Amino acid sequence: QVQLVESGGGLVQPGGSLRLSCKTSWSIASFNNMGWYRQAPGKARELVATTTNDGVTNYANSVKGRFTISRDNPQNTVYLQMNNLKLEDTAVYYCNLDATASGGMDYWGKGTLVTVSS
Fold it and tell me: 64-80: b or e for each residue (b if 16 or more CB lie within 10 Å)?
């Protein structure tokens, strides 16, 4: 059974918006520090944003003020609202169950591709 399913990516122009979703097969309330990562072509995966059950969030400097992470525990879903998208945001985006682990928990979904292009 697939336990992490990312969706919501697509092709968007600079300045546009997308909302990514990560639906899990687990009770995400059991995972206090979930996060979103991204991997651009030819580059290492990097942490983008994290969220706790208490709503504490953190963001990479590159996305601060533009992206918002949130979670819906009853629906076992984590979201990433992405506004004012830039060319450098182009990447495959992945959610992770434990962003406190070095590099994230070693369990990944297929990701969802975000392409920012004119």
Answer: eeebbbebeeeebbbbb
